[in-house]
Specification:
The chain is mainly alpha-helical and 460 residues long. It has 3 domains: 17-107, Fumarase/aspartase (N-terminal domain) (Fumarase C, Chain B, domain 1); 118-152 and 164-211 and 228-360, Fumarase/aspartase (Central domain) (Fumarase C, Chain A, domain 2), CATH 1.20.200.10; 364-458, Fumarase/aspartase (C-terminal domain) (Ribonucleotide Reductase Protein R1, domain 1, Orthogonal Bundle), CATH 1.10.40.30. It has 20 helices and 6 strands. A two-stranded antiparallel sheet has the order 1-2. Strands 3-4 form a two-stranded parallel sheet. Strands 5-6 form a two-stranded antiparallel sheet. Helix 4 packs across helix 5. The structure holds arginine. Arginine (ARG) binds at residues 25, 85, 111-112, 115, 319, 321, 323-324. Residues 25, 85, 111-112, 115, 319, 321, 323-324 line the site of arginine (ARG).
Length: 460
C-alpha cells in the first residue's frame, strides 16, 4: 500500500507509479533541506506570535526540526519518493516525531510560498559562496599580473600578432571581465532581497500573519508586494543563470587561451602536472583537460538559462507545477560555476610562465610596424602615408627575408627620407609598451594603476 499523501483527503485511488515518478523532485531538491528548515522555524515562530501555536507546540516543532536537520546531515534520514519533495519529506518526518504540533506547521502557508522562499535562501547562500570563489580568482589574476609587469608578449587581433603588450595587461583584461561578472552576481542576489513567505498559495492567507516579523527573522530587506507575482516569479533564478552563462563564457575564453598557450606552437605557459592528464595510447601527451572542460562547460551553462527561459514562457499566473523544473538547471549551474572557478584558480596558481618564449614571440609578426608608422608621423609624415611606407617595408622583408626588427636606419631611409638614426628604438618590441600613452593602455604605469583600482573595487 502506498503512503497516504499529505494532500490525500479528497482522493480515493492511489497515485499511479508514473505520477509519483514524474512528480518527484526529492532526488534533487533534498539539497534545500537547510533552507526549508530555516524557513519552517521562522514560520513556526510567527505562528506562535500570532497565537496559532502555543509555546509548547513551538518548542516541539523547533526541537523536532533540529533533530530532522541532524538526521539529514549525518546521512540517516530516509527520503521518500512518494512524499514528492523536500517540503513534504521534512513535514512528514516532523509529524512522525511530534504528532499534532507537526500537523499545525503548515497553517497559513502553502508549498508555493514555501518553495519560493527556500529557493531564494538557497540562491543567497550559494551565491555568497560563488562570490568568494570569484573574488579569489580575480585577486589571483591581480597578484599574477603584479609579478609579470615586465613580461612582454604579443597582443593578438584575429589571432595574428598585433602589438606587444605586457602579460600582466592581458591577465588583467580577464580580471576586469570577471569583475563585471561579480556585479552581475550582485544584481542577481539583489533580486532575492524580498521575502516571499506569508502569501500562501496565491491570494494571501486567512489568518492574521506577520510578514514583517518573517522578514526580520529571515534577514530579507523587504516583503514582496503581490501574492500572485510572488508565487509565479522565478526572475531571480533566471538572473543567476544569466550571470552563470556570462561567467561561463568568460571562463571559456580564458580556458581557450590556456589551451593555445600550452601548445608547442605557442609555449607561453606550462601547466602543472596536477592539472593535466596523459593519453592512454600516446606516451608523450600532457593534455590540458581541465582547461578544455572549463571551455566546454560554458555550453551547459547557456543550456540551463535557455531551459528555464523556455519553461517560463507563456506560463499563466500563478503557480504551475512546471515551475518545479527551475531547480535542476539552477543546481547544475551553481555546481558548474564552482567547479570552473576552482579549476581555473588551480591552473593559474600552479602554471609556469615562459617569459622568454613570450618575449621572443613579441619580436615576430612585425609587431612594431605601428610604432614605426607612428615614428614617421612624429617626423611630420601624414599617417595614411606612413602606413603605406611601413607596408612597403614589410613587403620588402617578406620577399627578401630581411629581419624587420634589426633593420638599419640606412636601409629604412631608402623607403622614406623622414627616417633618422633614432629610429631603432621604435622597432624594439620591449619598449613598445612604454610608448602607449592611453589611459587603460599597456604601459607600466597604467598596468600598476589597473592593479590598484581592481584591488580597491575588490576590497582587498
Ligand atoms: N516541489 C514543488 C516545486 O518545486 C513545490 C511546490 C508544489 N506546489 C504545489 N502546489 N504542487 O515547485
Amino acid at each position: 500500500m502506498k503512503n497516504k499523501k499529505l494532500w490525500g483527503g479528497r482522493f480515493e485511488g492511489a497515485s499511479a507509479d508514473i505520477t509519483e515518478k514524474i512528480s518527484a523532485s526529492i532526488h534533487y531538491d533534498s539539497r534545500l533541506y537547510r533552507q526549508d528548515i530555516r524557513g519552517s522555524i521562522a514560520h513556526a515562530r510567527m505562528l506562535k506570535k500570532t497565537g496559532i501555536l502555543t509555546g509548547d507546540e513551538l518548542q516541539a516543532i523547533e526541537k523536532g526540526l533540529e533533530e530532522v536537520l541532524a538526521e539529514i546531515e549525518n546521512g540517516s534520514f530516509e527520503f521518500s519518493q512518494s512524499l514528492e519533495d523536500i517540503h513534504m519529506n521534512i513535514e512528514s518526518a516532523l509529524t512522525q516525531r511530534i504528532g499534532d504540533a507537526g500537523r499545525k506547521l503548515h497553517t497559513a502557508r502553502s508549498r508555493n510560498d514555501q518553495v519560493a522562499l527556500d529557493l531564494r535562501l538557497y540562491v543567497r547562500d550559494e551565491g555568497r559562496a560563488v562570490r568568494e570563489l570569484l573574488g579569489a580568482l580575480i585577486a589571483l589574476l591581480a597578484e599574477t599580473a603584479e609579478r609579470h609587469v615586465e613580461t612582454v608578449m604579443p597582443g593578438f587581433t584575429h589571432l595574428q600578432v598585433a602589438q606587444p603588450v605586457r602579460f600582466s595587461h592581458h591577465l588583467l583584461a580577464h580580471a576586469w571581465a570577471l569583475l563585471r561578472d561579480r556585479e552581475r552576481l550582485d544584481a542577481a542576489l539583489a533580486a532575492t532581497s524580498a521575502l516571499p513567505l506569508g502569501v500562501g498559495a496565491c491570494a494571501g492567507v486567512n489568518y492574521e500573519n506577520d510578514r514583517e516579523f518573517l522578514r526580520e527573522e529571515l534577514g530579507f530587506e523587504s516583503i514582496t508586494p503581490n501574492s500572485m507575482d510572488t508565487v509565479s516569479d522565478r526572475d531571480f533564478v533566471l538572473d543567476f543563470l544569466y550571470f552563470s552563462a556570462v561567467l561561463g563564457m568568460h571562463l571559456s575564453r580564458m580556458a581557450e587561451e590556456i589551451v593555445l598557450w600550452t601548445t608547442g606552437a605557442f609555449g607561453f605557459i606550462k601547466l602543472a602536472d596536477g592539472v593535466t592528464t596523459g593519453s592512454s595510447i600516446m606516451p608523450q601527451k600532457r593534455n590540458p583537460d581541465v582547461a578544455e572542460l572549463i571551455r566546454g562547460k560554458a555550453g551547459r551553462l547557456y543550456g540551463n538559462l535557455i531551459s528555464l527561459f523556455v519553461t517560463m514562457k507563456g506560463l499563466p499566473l500563478t503557480y504551475n507545477r512546471d515551475l518545479q523544473e527551475d531547480k535542476e538547471p539552477l543546481f547544475d549551474s551553481i555546481d558548474t560555476v564552482k567547479l570552473c572557478l576552482e579549476g581555473m584558480r588551480e591552473m593559474l596558481a600552479t602554471m609556469e610562465v615562459e617569459s622568454d618564449v613570450m618575449k621572443n614571440a613579441a619580436a615576430t609578426g612585425y609587431s612594431t610596424a605601428t610604432d614605426l608608422a607612428d615614428y614617421l608621423v612624429k617626423k611630420g609624415v601624414p599617417f595614411r602615408k606612413s602606413h603605406e611606407i611601413v607596408g612597403n617595408i614589410v613587403k620588402h622583408c617578406e620577399s627578401t627575408g630581411a629581419d624587420f626588427f634589426s633593420m638599419a636606419p640606412e636601409e629604412l631611409k631608402k623607403f622614406s627620407g623622414a627616417f633618422d638614426d633614432d629610429v631603432r628604438e621604435s622597432l624594439d618590441p620591449a619598449s613598445s609598451t612604454e610608448r602607449k600613452m592611453s589611459a587603460g593602455g599597456t604601459s607600466r604605469g597604467e598596468v600598476f594603476a589597473q592593479i590598484k583600482s581592481l584591488r580597491e573595487k575588490l576590497g582587498t
